[in-house]
Amino acid sequence: MARVALVTGGMGGLGEAVCIKLAALGYKVVTTYSPGNKKADSWLSQMKEQGYDFKAYPCDVSDYDSAQACIAQVQQEVGPIDVLVNNAGITRDMTFKKMDKPNWDAVMKTNLDSVFNMTKPVCDGMVERGWGRIINISSVNGQKGAFGQTNYSAAKAGMHGFSKALAYEVARKGVTVNTISPGYIGTKMVMDIPSEVLETKIIPQIPMGRLGKPEEVAGLVAYLSSEEAAFVTGANIAINGGQHMQ
Ligand code: CAA
């Protein structure tokens, strides 16, 4: 029977590429979207036209109760979740001088609390079934820090601390927990950076001299989701055009 993969924030640039890749490999793919997202239906029909029959559920990943309710519904309607990709995330970039509590909290809740909220209701089931893959999409900026991202860098670094600790706890149960740290990928999140900053401050720091492609990250998610990746756990895999060498 096909394994079930749940990808949070699957309607964004990176998430969509992950959904498409996992579906092409035979996973039954479910995604979540922010309850306010008015484009959810049109995204689903667009995907259907391309031959992808995804299921999508509204879920505020930053809210514990919303996450529990969403996962319960998915498990009832689709089946137990075998692969969880914690991909949903936001930025609220500003220098620390300008950083206020609401913009700190929003990023911590959406990018880090969400990992707890979504993993909590699926992890025990994975352990009981003796198979599971939890993949946390972090960022190069959780590894090296970034100008204007004290909130985001803290949350993204925290994701990997979570991955390592949980990976330890479930290492003998057939469940792997890993972090992927993409660099600058050509998605809306990155294209929203002021173009002057992107061109003069960021791209020159990438040894390959270009942005990454969502499909390149999706390929790594597919690998970590696979049987072959059973011995990889607690890892933080960089995919950033060589930026970690800077
Ligand atoms: N490195 C060094 N200096 C920088 C800088 C950088 N990356 N970005 C800005 N500065 C400098 C500017 O040159 C400027 O210097 P001067 O005062 O000497 O002229 C000073 O900082 C203030 O810059 P701004 O006028 O831009 O200040 P602002 O308050 O209007 O904006 C900012 C600050 C919001 C941080 C803006 O610079 C910005 O958006 N930067 C990009 C942040 C970024 O990299 N975000 C990543 C988003 S993508 C992502 O997060 C995905 C992922 O995982 C990789």
What characteristics describe this protein?
acetoacetyl-CoA reductase activity, 9 helices, 246 residues, alpha/beta, globular, 47% helix, binds acetoacetyl-coenzyme A
What's the gist of this structure?
Its EC number is 1.1.1.36. It holds the Pfam family adh_short. This protein is an alpha/beta fold.
Structure characterization notes:
This is Acetoacetyl-CoA reductase. Pfam families: adh_short (PF00106). Belongs to the short-chain dehydrogenases/reductases (SDR) family. It comes from Massilia phyllostachyos. Helices cover 47% and strands 15% of the residues. It is of the alpha/beta class and 246 residues long. The chain has one domain: 3-Layer(aba) Sandwich (Rossmann fold), CATH 3.40.50. Strands 3-2-1-4-5-6-7 form a seven-stranded parallel β-sheet, sandwiched between helices. Strand 2, helix 2 and strand 3 form a beta-alpha-beta unit. Helix 1 crosses helix 9 and helix 4 packs parallel to helix 6. The longest helix has 29 residues. The radius of gyration is 17 Å and the shape is globular. The structure holds acetoacetyl-coenzyme A. The site of acetoacetyl-coenzyme A (CAA) has 21 residues, from helix 5, helix 7 and helix 8.
